[in-house]
Amino acid sequence: MMLDGKVAVIAGAGPGLGRTLAVLMAREGADVAVAARSADVLDAIAAEVAAEGRAALAVPADVSRPDDVRRLADAVTGRFGRVDVLVNAAFPGSHRRAVLDMDEEHLERWRAAVEIATYGTLLTCRYLAPHMVAAGGGSIVNVTSMSSRTGYAGRSDYAAGKAGVHLLSHCLADELGPSGVRVNCVAPGWIASDVLDDWMRTRAAAEGVTFEEIRARDVAAMALRRIATEEDVARAVIFLASDQARSTTGATLDVNGGQLFT
Domain 7-191+227-255, what architecture? Predict the structure, then answer.
């Protein structure tokens, strides 16, 4: 039970990685609060946490809005009395648009994407970390991306937002370290999912090859010859959140099967 008795908050808890992380954290002994914009998704995740025998709290919130994040902090501390772990997993989908092709609508989407990723992480840390400082310790884990280490055409919104979180995490690690609060990142590469398979099929059709050929070529570029799963990423987050990583802060743990070495 790596998180036995702890209270964990997952900001940006969606139906994929967020759900997997919430359930695994509950199995590791944590009570879990989940926050995102979709109330229906949150209620379903909270029900799964409760089914694991742990207390659950669902708080609909837009992490890029200060009032929503203050309300999240109040709801969590009002229910549980403390915060031990904060995971920032909110991310916008990339619109895959080259910078020089952006019109006003795409420029606004770019700004919103960076706000969700970087400013949203700043806000949750600003209003939840003080409770960790007051308690003398805690752990913040920010889920970033391999894309924050290397840019790809058409994905500057996603890459810039996640890269901002990396350096924000370094600053916070330095600021909060004396109070016993650790701040780290987990940077996934590709994660096995229907979305990834659809993208591979699109590329296969564009190149006139089969899905199997594209997948085999992509996997061959990974040192471990396998695509990471949601559970692989969640386990890395749980490790950094736990006391087993009590001397680790300001670090980034890559989970990409060896697709990119840093």
Answer: 3-Layer(aba) Sandwich (3.40)
Residue whose tokens read 């080259």:
98
Predicted confidence (pLDDT) per residue in 147-161, tens digit: 888 888 888 999 999
Residue 165 neighbours by CB under 8 Å, 6+ apart: 88, 117, 118, 121, 142, 144, 148, 185
Q: Is 261 helix (H, G, I), strand (E, B) or coil?
A: coil
Identity of residue 40 = D
Residue 2 corresponds to which tokens in the numbers above? 């790596």
Q: Rounded CA gap, 183 and 175, in Å? A: 10
- CA gyration radius for the chain? 18
DSSP symbols for 117-164: IIIHHHHHHHHHHHHHHHHT-EEEEEE--GGGTS--TT-HHHHHHHHH
pLDDT beyond 80 at 95: no
- DSSP character for 77? H
Active site residues: 158
* Percent of the chain at pLDDT exceeding 90: 91
